[in-house]
Backbone:
């Protein structure tokens, strides 16, 4: 697959009011066939009140799994998985992960991997294929 035809994922992160939306909008307008999700607009209600019950409906019923898959790649990557603590141990996390893996399989992925050793992943069928040792040394300044 040529580099020009590959899709790209750009993650823009930073503190509030530093211009993330401005950068995302500029990229969106510059690239044909692009899309973006702006977290500032995810829970937009009018009039705004932090106590508005509409702001709590989505996250109270939600378990989320993000998958990273590039068409033509062998692997899809699981991260992050989030389930509201009040709704854990109900199978919601497992359901969203397994559905997300199935969807990536429909796109061509052959194997799903995750960079975590949390028991949750063992419980839903993941197993270790690789371990690493990380070494660290403090940097000394003069």
Residues:
């Amino acid at each position: 697959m040529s580099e020009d035809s590959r899709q790209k994922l750009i993650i823009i992160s930073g503190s509030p009011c530093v211009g993330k939306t401005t950068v995302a909008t500029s990229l969106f307008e510059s690239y044909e066939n692009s899309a973006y999700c702006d977290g500032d607009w995810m829970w937009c209600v009018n009039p705004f009140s932090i106590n508005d019950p509409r702001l709590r409906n989505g996250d109270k019923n939600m378990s989320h799994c993000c998958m990273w898959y590039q068409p033509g790649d062998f692997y899809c990557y699981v991260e992050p998985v989030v389930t509201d603590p009040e709704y854990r141990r109900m199978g919601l996390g497992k359901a969203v992960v397994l559905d997300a893996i199935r969807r990536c399989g429909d796109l061509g992925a052959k194997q799903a991997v995750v960079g975590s050793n949390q028991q949750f992943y063992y419980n839903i069928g993941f197993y270790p294929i690789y371990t690493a040792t990380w070494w660290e040394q403090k940097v000394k300044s003069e």
DSSP finds four helices and three strands in the chain. The first strand starts at residue 63 and ends at 68. The mean pLDDT is 78.
